[in-house]
Design brief:
Blueprint lengths: L13 H29 L13 H31 L5 H25 L2
Helix pairs in contact: 1-2, 1-3, 2-3
Protein name: Transmembrane protein
Keywords: Membrane, Transmembrane, Transmembrane helix
Length: 118
């Protein structure tokens, strides 16, 4: 087992897995954002309104749909971090992926909440 303070470990191909995981989660969140945005724009309840996010269901779907995907992706990365740590394998890349996805989720919620408040 390698001491975490000594950074002599190599990632052994783990970086590619982390990158593919991040891309998959971010693309999934973007697809959910696109689908919920299209759904909100085509609703009959919002046909007469000047904005796409005209009522609470539209705002909630557009705001929380992608955020839930990013949250679940971050939790999945942290679960992988724990499994890697328990096996004595390299875990810092997965932990970084989890924090990155949580950061994206927080930024999306902050920006989206500002837009939905209008």
């Amino acid at each position: 087992m390698v001491d975490d303070v000594e950074k002599r470990w190599s990632n052994g191909g783990e970086g590619g897995q982390v990158a593919r995981y991040l891309v998959a989660v971010i693309v999934s969140a973007a697809l959910v954002a696109a689908v919920t945005g299209i759904w909100a724009a085509r609703r009959s309840a919002c046909a007469e309104a000047a904005t796409t996010l005209c009522d609470t269901p539209a705002k909630a779907a557009v705001l929380f749909g992608p955020a839930v995907i990013l949250l679940l992706g971050g939790l999945g990365a942290f679960a992988r971090t724990y499994r890697q740590w328990r096996r004595g394998q390299n875990w810092p890349l997965w932990q970084g992926a989890g924090w990155f996805l949580f950061l994206l989720m927080t930024a999306y919620l902050a920006i989206g909440a500002g837009a939905a408040a209008r």
